[in-house]
Predict the structure.
Amino acid sequence: MTAFTIMKMSTQEESLLPKLAVEAFRNAFKEASESSTVVYAKGHQLLKQHPTGETEVIKDISGAYTVIEASRALLKRKKKQAVV
């Protein structure tokens, strides 16, 4: 079970959260890649990086990406009817 702690923060502190999350992810990736082999996707390729820094291409995954065309349909909410 997960417990969440409610933290009060200012709007300035709240605006820094995305930057802190990116920095935390970079640090975690760096630490993981220095201690063991890491597999990740970059530039439509699946890469394996060894702790020595050597990187090898495992597979080209460009076929897995699909282009989603934007639809211009407007979505409307249904009107709520009052129950008498």
